[in-house]
Specification:
CATH architecture: Up-down Bundle
Distance between the termini: 33 Å
Number of strands: 2
Order of helices and strands: HHHEEHHH
CATH superfamily: dinb family like domain
Length: 200
């Protein structure tokens, strides 16, 4: 169950809630289903998303990061995925809630490794939101992305994603269809087909 801890950063809080909802909708037999991340199952995407939230929190606070490599995530979900996710989201939200919004920059675990507070919190949100979409699509849930959420996520994605592509979290960008659809533009920039289905 959610403890409803929020960071105070609207985009991050909405993205955390999207990830929370997507994970809660994974059926018991759905953890090994394929996802839009072609090499990763639902479990691997879930574990990666958890690990990245812990990584952002640890970079901000100096606390413990994930016990595994988020770019080589475990293949089994563990005994209590919901509790594991809630711990990660709470740590990240608390870390961002403590950030000085007037600071020139804060440390982040992704290049360029320092960002403005808004950009850093939105980078953290980007990871949560896009993997919420991956999990939702893999398990037959509605898309958690909205134009209001996709807009700021795309703005930050265009500044940070290219150096991350070789690590496997984001594939090469797909051509945009120029349809002025912010959600589709975000997904295509992140190397995801907005029309992806498990049978595709």
């Amino acid at each position: 169950m959610s403890n409803d801890f929020t960071s105070g950063w609207d985009v991050l809080d909405a993205s955390h809630e999207a990830l929370r909802k997507a994970v809660s909708g994974i059926p018991a037999d759905g953890w090994h289903l394929p996802t839009p991340c072609s090499q990763w199952s639902v479990t691997k995407v879930f574990k990666h998303a958890v690990g990245d939230q812990l990584g952002f929190a640890a970079t901000l606070t100096g606390g413990d990061g994930p016990a595994f490599n988020p770019f080589d995530p475990p293949a089994e979900p563990g005994a209590d995925p919901s509790a594991e996710l809630e711990d990660a989201l709470t740590r990240a939200a608390r870390a961002w809630a403590a950030v000085d919004r007037d600071a020139a920059e804060v440390p982040t675990p992704v290049p360029p490794n320092t960002m403005t507070p808004w950009m850093g919190s939105t980078a953290c949100a980007l990871d949560a939101a896009v993997h919420a979409w991956d999990l939702a699509m893999a398990t037959g849930q509605p898309s958690p992305l909205t134009p209001e959420l996709a807009g700021p996520l795309l703005e930050v994605a265009k500044q940070i994603v290219d150096p991350l592509r070789p690590w496997g979290a984001y594939a090469e960008a797909l051509p945009d269809d120029a349809a002025r659809d912010e959600v589709a533009s975000l997904l295509r920039y992140l190397g995801r087909d907005p029309r992806w289905t498990p049978a595709a």
